[in-house]
Amino acid sequence: MSAAPPEITIPADLLPGDGRFCCGPSKVRPEAVATLAEQAGEYLGTSHRQPGVRFMVARLRNGLAEMLALPDGYEVLIGNGGTTGFWDALSFGVIEERSHHLVFGEFSGKFAEVTRSAPHLGEPSTARAEPGSAPPLVAVDGADAYCLTHNETSTGVAVTPTRPEGADPGALVIVDATSAAGGLRFDPVDTDVYYFAPQKCLASDGGLWIAVCSPQAIDRIERIAASDRWRPASLDLGIALENSRKDQTYNTPALATIFLAVQQIEWVNEYGGLTWAAARCAESAAHAYGWAESSEHATPYVSDPSLRSEVVATIDLADDVDAATVSAVLRANGVHDTESYRKLGRNQLRFALFPAIEPDDVLALTRCVDHVVGELRSGGVGARP
Ligand SMILES: *Cc1c(COP(=O)(O)O)cnc(C)c1O
């Protein structure tokens, strides 16, 4: 157990309006929660096989198609199990024989491990890069699926999805967009399976997976579903496809999660969709990195500005200031979840810049950090052990 943080009170006029900066589960807009409360009597606790909930699922699927400007023929699939469950579903229902993975952090590494340990698949290939950077996407002979991460949430590195030049015909581009979808721009035509969960940019709760699939990906899912490969029903994407087309899930979903995601998607669409949401995240990112670059006690962790994420900021602090202490003081003042990714082991702050978070609140957060660092230094407390 760590000791209690030094007693530092951040002046109220420096504090953000909302102190939630977690990278997932992330801030849910209070307006969305209020709307859920208003409509709960007609919605929560009703059958997911009846029109009320199915209509909400249709709003989710159609709203996403609008928000992400999906081309004709792309379909939105949903199911239970979050992104981690969907990795298993991909191994059963989309990867034919051999996948190629860009591994540059915790999440991309986990998915590569799923396919490596799957007994029905060949050995995957991986291209690795040190945390804080990203490997290039290069075609590999025999790869039928290229697996990338749009935003590596553990390190704050973002790459734009592309198709590798010279890949085998029919190879699919599969993108983990869990923390990117709805906050970072991309061109859907460069992806075949763009998948995510609603507890990050969609400002809802976890437990659901959502996958935007190209016609080629749908073909692959249908082909594997018709084959004799064994797969558990809850991870069978053929079954998920059938249910999604009826605005249902194979088993019971969390109704509140779907409702809150719809609130966020329709809020974003009201202002112009992904273009607007991404611009809002870019504004927050400019506050965070601009501050860190001009600060003498903070530095952006990702040294290449073109790889710096506009949805998750990672900021190293100077050696004489303990980042964990700063985060603990912030937490005691109602500013939550600025701790760095636990396994990265750096003297770092990490915080979300998702669309639901006000850019002004990000600015306020940077001022709170400055205040806390100033107090720690002047009091001689909280230096790195
Ligand atoms: C959060 C996250 C995951 C895990 O999502 P779950 O829904 O908790 O399984 C996977 N990949 C990335 C990039 C993430 O940010």
Q: What are the defining features of this structure?
A:
single chain; 385 residues; alpha/beta; Aspartate Aminotransferase, domain 1; Aspartate Aminotransferase, domain 2; 7-stranded mixed β-sheet; 3-stranded antiparallel β-sheet; 12 strands; 37% helix; binds pyridoxal-5'-phosphate
Strand order of the biggest β-sheet: 1-9-8-7-4-2-3
**SS class:** alpha/beta
Give the CATH architecture of the largest domain.
3-Layer(aba) Sandwich
Number of strands: 12
Number of domains: 2
Radius of gyration based on Cα positions: 21 Å
Total DSSP helices: 10
Q: What's the helix-strand series?
A: HHEHEHEEEEEEEHHHHEEHEH
Give your account of this protein's structure.
By secondary structure, the protein is of the alpha/beta class. It has two domains: 19-27 and 273-379, Alpha-Beta Complex (Aspartate Aminotransferase, domain 1); 31-270, Type I PLP-dependent aspartate aminotransferase-like (Major domain) (Aspartate Aminotransferase, domain 2, 3-Layer(aba) Sandwich). The chain is 37% helix and 14% strand. It contains ten helices and twelve strands. The protein has helices at residues 30-43, 51-67, 82-93, 106-117, 215-225, 237-245, 255-270, 274-294, 323-332, 359-379; strands at 75-80, 99-103, 125-128, 145-149, 151-152, 157-158, 172-176, 193-196, 208-213, 298-300, 312-317, 348-352. It has a seven-stranded mixed β-sheet with strand order 1-9-8-7-4-2-3, with helices on both faces. It has a three-stranded antiparallel β-sheet with strand order 10-11-12. A hairpin with a 4-residue loop joins strand 5 and strand 6 (157-158). Helix 1 packs across helix 7, helix 2 runs parallel beside helix 7 and helix 8 (274-294) packs parallel to helix 10 (359-379). It is globular and about 70 Å long. The model has no long low-confidence stretch (mean pLDDT 96). The protein binds pyridoxal-5'-phosphate. Pyridoxal-5'-phosphate is lined by residues 24, 82-84, 107, 149, 153, 176, 178-179, 197, 206.
